[in-house]
Design brief:
Blueprint lengths: L21 E2 L48 E2 L2 E9 L4 E8 L5 E6 L5 E8 L8 H8 L12 H8 L2 E4 L2 E2 L3 E8 L2 H16 L5 H7 L2 E3 L8 E3 L1 H9 L3 H13 L21 H11 L5 E7 L3 H12 L22 E8 L10 E11 L5 H15 L5 H9 L4 E8 L4 E11 L1 H21 L3 H17 L7 H13 L12 H12 L4 H11 L4 E9 L2 H19 L2 H19 L4 H4 L20 E5 L2 E7 L5 E9 L11 H10 L7 H11 L3 E9 L9 E12 L3 H13 L6 H19 L3 H10 L4 H10 L1 H16 L1 H15 L6 E6 L4 H14 L11 H4 L8 E4 L6 E7 L9 H21 L5 E6 L5 E7 L5 H8 L1 H7 L4 H15 L5 H14 L3 H12 L3 H14 L4 E6 L1 H9 L5 E3 L3
Parallel strand pairs: 5-12, 13-17, 19-23, 24-28, 24-29
Antiparallel strand pairs: 1-8, 2-3, 3-4, 4-5, 6-9, 6-12, 7-9, 8-9, 10-11, 14-16, 14-17, 15-16, 18-19, 20-22, 20-23, 21-22, 25-27, 25-28, 26-27
Length: 1050
């Protein structure tokens, strides 16, 4: 993914397992790094689930021009046509007569149009050639000869998605937009980029690797964007474990190497190999092209044909992914990893058991669906028998492994544990085998089957992909077969496989028991992978890198060194040189006249029911009821505030007085579409950015309208009859919480830095740090000891917290559903609200009154990593600067110009960006997987001067305005629209305020940019710094004069 990584999301709480799609924009694909283990077959989106077979949230398809097989349009021949009823889409497979390129055209009524061009790119080694190419082709092309067309599109388009991904066997270049002209502008730039990139050896040096030397007698280093990105990737133990687990069961084919590139191997990649890989694989004959949405099909074919006409068909058999030969005996693999140089490492072993299953293109869809349900049945919830057996054992801290993997050509299954002692590694492996054996013999409980099947069915039918375009989710699913010369529509069709599975279960067949025997118990293609903690790992890796550098330096003559210095200088000059305005003008973009002058609003009705404020958003949801329940937590004491995160989890994970947590989890899966308590923290809009805190327990639930009664019954049981008195189960939650927070630090150091910085300026953000950040980690460690030594005290705290939170007073409820469904929901809602206690006065002193005054401080947190995450913050409102919509525009421009150039392109970080909080006035600089510390801070300090002196042209200003309006009008599904509307209501962000900011953006001038630069320049000396990174880098930065206090959170 190309190098912007979201700075949003401040918490570390319960970081999920890393996935392994590589790509430019880490924030856009469910995870900042990773591919295979995050993508599910049958286009299953990452959401909660429920029953209700009638869910089908798709738009009505537009008028489709009739075609017949054999028709030729724009040199494309129609070879297949089907109506995919699951997504109300007409799907047509076209084949280009001249090049053989296949194009799948999916026609429906979705305004969020999606395009993707995908190449089969199997690497033969771990030099990262497909990953570096993914970055490099977007660094200028024949038609658009500028340094970063990708960044220009970020600045100037209304895109709803713009990214690129490297998978283990393919590279994808997808875009999406709701504006048709904008959409085809994006398609045009991407097609030219992949087929006609303006790559030179300097492109490989910048994006991949190069030796950097500023002076013949100076210190030589290795730099490169992907090189540093993968250093960061290999600092995440769970991600590394997932990589090694895949390599272990596919040792003889492309899945046995690292497509993203291993830092040890990346410097071995030569220009000839790099260019040759593009020549061999980035050819139309090796491409699959995808279109989805409500645009005209003829325009799709015409646009692609424009690019394909100059190519001839070639043989692409060399890109085919072969099958891994099956083993007759299991294997064992061991690796060491960086566990940090401090503390006890004896309990930091990790292990997985991994099985290779059958090929996707040779397995019946019904069986794949059954395996998908089985994976969920075994692992998806705390009540799942394999997960429960592992966590109940006390052998380790938490489970690892992604379960079923359906994205690669051959399916696989992985499960294990982390936080183990050496002697417990074998015990975990034995326990996995024993549990699977027991399930195969004793059978899977009927209630568990019903819950899991219902959950998956709802996910498939709802197709709620969040901010991820639905069309892109379907494209990735289709590629699991299409990439390997098999039917691309099979993964989109789930009705028949689902019906067959239900019929087999109804007939009493032992479907899941047989699958366990076949795929696990009698399957010899199994690898046990163990990760051994090595406190000296980082030291050894640094030594290996230095040895490589010393070898080059020692063998180089003075002339050779002068050439490296000259190359370094030339590369820096190219990176710093502005693009020719004539070339920039070639990038297509809309005009301001194409922009809607008025903001988008969401219809709502406000009501008072039983003393609670109720918002209803009448939006088309196909009978799904989305409900958000917010209870005020301002009455919680400061001592109990950090317990909120575990308290919210306990509501659904400890059971009730009526049923244990296993039964409760199954009931949630069986009756609802998901039910998730969490905390919500914000503040009221105020001119000084210091408005009163808005803090709530937020329970988000969804269900079919026919299940509304059951959903409210669940909420009553959870809120009115919780059972907190389960010491062993609560202790498990605390152990898992600790492990989750710790594992989230290394891969998400920018969120750690952002949360810590924000906590230094506003009380609400201080509270978030206590409940989710590094302060929370300290609390959880101490809580674990309290559970062991003072359970009665912990139980009393949970009960006191519950008493302070569950209260009808100040309650807010938000319902998003069809207008004709709401009356029935309203009647049920009143009955539910009447059952809740109403307390007129708070029994505890408020944490808001007790919280300390936030104070800026420079902090450095040493973690086991080879890269850094560098943050700096200041509060502009506190400094007297008045924020407008133009301020947000200037901030975005700063991130896509100066910071991109100085921190990423010139500095070698994977990402460099900034964030302006219009509500609080906080302004943050952040970097991601950064080899530098002080150099990056110097770049931050130069940002104000850049904006002050930056004479932005009218054209550049217009592009920035277009991109900003695109952000303001970001595409959202009904549940997200309703929730966002509610949060604006409860925080006082009125439509008038939003419209005023929009007008300020549309009317922004160059002076606004200079004024913002003045504010940054004036506050740079007062800003605070937080760095999360390697011990070597932080100590060096301190020695160079950075005033910072250091600590080790792990």
């Amino acid at each position: 993914m190309i190098g912007f990584v979201s700075g949003g999301g401040l918490g570390l709480k319960r970081a999920g397992p890393s996935v392994r799609v590589r790509g430019f924009l880490g924030s856009s694909v469910r995870a900042s790094h990773g591919a295979a283990r995050g993508v599910r077959w049958f286009a299953t989106p990452p959401v909660g689930a429920t029953s209700a077979a009638e869910v089908k949230m798709v738009a009505t398809a537009p008028q489709v021009i009739p075609r017949k097989i054999g028709d030729v349009v724009e040199d494309f021949e129609l070879v297949r046509e089907e109506f995919v009823s699951e997504y109300a889409s007409q799907a047509r497979l076209w084949k280009h007569k001249k090049t053989g390129t296949e194009l799948l055209s999916v026609l429906n009524g979705d305004e969020n149009k999606t395009f993707g061009i995908v190449f089969r790119t199997p690497p033969k080694d771990s030099t990262g050639v497909p990953h570096i190419l993914e970055h490099s082709v977007l660094c200028g092309s024949r038609k658009y000869p500028v340094k970063e067309p990708f960044v220009e599109l970020i600045k100037s388009s209304l895109n709803t998605f713009l990214n690129a991904f490297t998978f283990p066997d393919k590279t994808c270049y997808p875009v999406a937009s709701c504006n048709e002209q904008d959409f085809y502008n994006l398609v045009d730039v991407y097609m030219d980029a992949v087929l006609h990139p303006a790559m030179t050896p300097d492109t490989l040096r910048q994006e991949g690797h190069h030796f950097e030397l500023d002076d013949v007698d100076g210190k030589m280093t290795i730099k490169g964007v992907v090189y540093n990105e993968m250093k960061g990737a290999y600092s995440d133990p769970e991600r590394v474990l997932a990589e090694y687990s895949q390599e272990a069961i596919f040792p003889d084919i492309t899945y046995g190497v690292e497509s993203g590139g291993h830092p040890r191997d990346i410097p071995d990649l030569t220009w000839e190999q790099f260019k040759g890989f593009h020549d061999n694989y980035y050819h139309p004959s090796n491409a699959r092209v995808w279109f989805y949405g409500d645009d005209d099909e003829s325009r799709r074919l015409k646009k692609v044909n424009e690019f394909l006409q100059e190519f001839e068909k070639i043989d692409i058999s060399s890109s085919a992914v072969p099958l891994q030969e099956r083993w007759t005996e299991p294997r064992t693999v061991e690796h060491t990893y960086d566990c940090g140089s401090e503390g006890d490492s004896s309990n930091k072993y990790m292990t997985t058991l991994n099985w290779m299953l059958t090929p996707m293109d040779q397995t019946e869809p019904a069986k794949i669906l059954a395996l998908t349900v089985l994976s969920q049945l075994l692992l998806s919830t705390s009540a799942s028998p394999l997960r429960k057996a592992l966590t109940d054992s006390g052998l380790g801290e938490d489970i690892v492994g992604g379960g079923l993997e359906t994205d690669l050509r051959q399916m696989s299954f992985s499960v294990g544990m982390k936080g183990l002692t050496e002697e417990n590694v074998a015990k975990v492996q034995e326990l996995i085998e024993e549990t699977l054996t027991q399930l195969s013999k004793e059978g899977v409980p009927q209630t568990l089957m019903e819950s899991c099947l219902n959950t998956l069915e709802f996910r498939l039918r709802e197709n709620n992909t969040g901010r991820f375009p639905r069309g892109l989710s379907l494209m990735i699913a289709s590629l699991s077969t299409w990439l390997h010369e098999s039917d691309p529509l099979v993964p989109l069709r789930f009705e028949e496989p689902l019906m067959k599975l239900k019929e087999r279960l109804a007939a009493g067949e032992n479907v899941f028991e047989d699958l366990i025997k076949e795929n696990f118990l009698t399957n010899p293609h199994k690898a046990a992978v163990t990760m051994i903690p090595d406190p000296k790992y980082a030291e050894k890796e640094e030594a290996i890198e230095q040895e490589r550098i010393d070898k080059v330096a020692k063998a180089a003559s003075r002339e050779d060194l002068e050439e490296i210095v000259e190359m370094t200088q030339r590369l820096k000059e190219k990176q710093a040189k502005p693009d020719d305005p004539t070339d920039l003008a070639k990038i297509p973009y809309l005009s301001k006249d194409d922009l809607d002058k008025n903001m988008k609003t969401v219809p709502f009705e406000e009501d008072q029911i039983s003393g609670a404020t109720v918002y209803h958003h009448p939006l088309p949801t196909s009978g799904v009821v989305y409900m958000d329940l917010g209870m005020d937590i301002s009455g919680v004491s400061m001592e109990l505030l950090p317990l909120m995160s575990l308290y919210t989890e306990s509501l659904t994970q400890l059971g009730t007085k009526k049923e244990d947590f296993v039964s409760l989890q199954q009931r949630i899966g069986r009756e609802t579409g998901g039910l998730r308590p969490s905390t919500y923290m914000s503040q009221l809009v105020a001119a000084d950015g210091n408005g009163p805190v808005v803090s709530m327990l937020m329970i988000r639930a969804k269900a079919m309208s026919s299940k509304t009664t059951q959903t409210f019954d669940l909420l009553k049981d959870i809120l009115l009859e919780p059972n907190f008195d389960n010491k062993e189960r609560f202790r498990q939650l605390v152990v898992e919480e600790k492990a989750g927070v710790e594992s989230g630090i290394a891969p998400s150091g920018h969120t750690v830095a952002a949360g810590r910085l924000r906590s230094q300026y506003r009380v609400g953000d201080w509270a978030t740090e206590q409940m989710e950040g590094l302060a929370y980690l300290d609390y959880v460690k101490a809580l674990l000891e309290r559970v062991d030594n003072d359970w009665e005290g912990v139980l009393g705290d949970l009960q006191a917290l519950h008493s302070a939170v569950v209260n009808r007073s100040k309650l807010v409820c938000n319902v998003t559903t069809d207008s004709d469904v709401y009356p029935g929901v309203k009647a049920e809602l009143k009955s539910f609200l009447d059952s809740l206690p109403e307390k007129s006065s708070l029994q505890l002193p408020s944490w808001i009154d007790q919280a300390p005054t936030p104070t800026p401080a420079n902090e450095g947190f040493i973690i086991p990593a080879q890269v850094n995450y560098v943050g700096k913050a200041m509060n502009l409102l506190d400094a007297g600067y008045k924020l407008t919509g133009a301020s947000a525009l200037a901030s975005k421009h700063l991130g896509t110009s100066y910071l991109w150039d100085t921190v990423r392109v010139q500095g070698g970080a994977y990402g460099g960006f900034c964030r302006l909080d219009m509500r609080t006035g906080d302004f943050l600089y952040l970097s991601y997987r950064d080899p530098n510390v002080n150099k990056t801070l110097n770049s931050y300090d130069g940002a104000g001067a850049f904006l002050k002196s930056h004479d932005i042209s009218e054209e550049e200003l217009t592009k920035s305005i277009i991109g900003m309006i695109g952000d303001m009008d970001s595409y959202a599904l009904p549940d997200a629209k309703g929730f966002a509307s509610m949060t604006r209501k409860i925080t006082g962000e009125t439509d008038e305020i939003r419209q005023e900011r929009r007008e300020q953006v549309l009317g922004a001038t160059a002076k606004d940019f200079r004024d913002f630069g003045e504010a940054l320049e004036a506050t740079k000396e007062s800003g605070s710094v937080v760095v999360v990174g390697s011990e070597t880098s932080l100590n060096a930065a301190k020695e160079e004069g950075l005033d910072i206090s250091l600590s080790q959170p792990l």
